[in-house]
Design a protein that fits this description.
Blueprint (H helix, E strand, L loop, with lengths): L15 E6 L4 H18 L4 E2 L1 H4 L6 H10 L1 E8 L1 H5 L1 H13 L4 E5 L12 H9 L3 E2 L4 H16 L2 H11 L7
Parallel strand pairs: 1-2, 1-3, 3-4, 4-5
Helix pairs in contact: 3-5
């Protein structure tokens, strides 16, 4: 996994392995900048698009979001109560969902389902239809978290569809 892309891999068409959507509130931002990004980029070799570093200055935010979505193989959403409170975060999800719902990988940084906050229909639909990965600081749980996240980012969308086909019964009428 140290170098996840093979030469000629169809995923080379993407500049980034994942576009990371997260709240700019200090707790969330600190975790993304100092825990998530270093682990995924330095330890696992992924290329991430994070807005504070990769958005082009002087361009409309909406254009930067569209560019990041199109140039990323996955959309990594860091769910938190702060995320749900951010109009920009909700807008990023809406724009990315319009592009391709298959790209989403959800991380439950804090349990938004128990927060009692309003959840937009698009985000609710993602939470109801996508398996998410829960962050936990317990060392054993943290190790499993990184393993699951690395696998989710590594898998191609086509491979996921193939896995789903393999899980379907051969004789649906039975």
């Amino acid at each position: 996994f140290s170098h996840i892309r093979a030469k000629g891999d169809e995923n080379d068409i993407y500049k980034f392995d994942a576009f990371v959507l997260y709240s700019g509130v200090p707790d969330d931002r600190t975790w993304v900048h100092f825990k998530l990004v270093p682990q995924l980029e330095k330890e696992f070799g992924f290329r991430l698009c994070v807005h504070h570093r990769d958005f082009l200055a002087g361009f409309p935010i909406v254009d930067n979001i569209e560019r990041a979505t199109r140039s990323s193989r996955k959309i990594l959403v860091i769910m938190s109560a702060n995320f749900l409170n951010s109009d920009w975060c909700k807008e990023e999800v809406e724009m990315a969902a319009a592009e391709c719902r298959e790209k989403f990988v959800l991380v439950m940084y804090s349990d938004v389902l128990l927060s009692g906050q309003y959840i937009s229909p698009t985000i609710r639909r993602l939470l109801e239809t996508r398996t998410y990965i829960e962050w936990n600081e317990d060392p054993r749980a943290e190790q499993l978290f990184w393993k699951k996240l690395r696998r989710a980012l590594y898998l191609k969308t086509a491979a996921r569809r193939q896995d789903a086909l393999l899980l379907q019964p051969r004789h649906p009428e039975l």
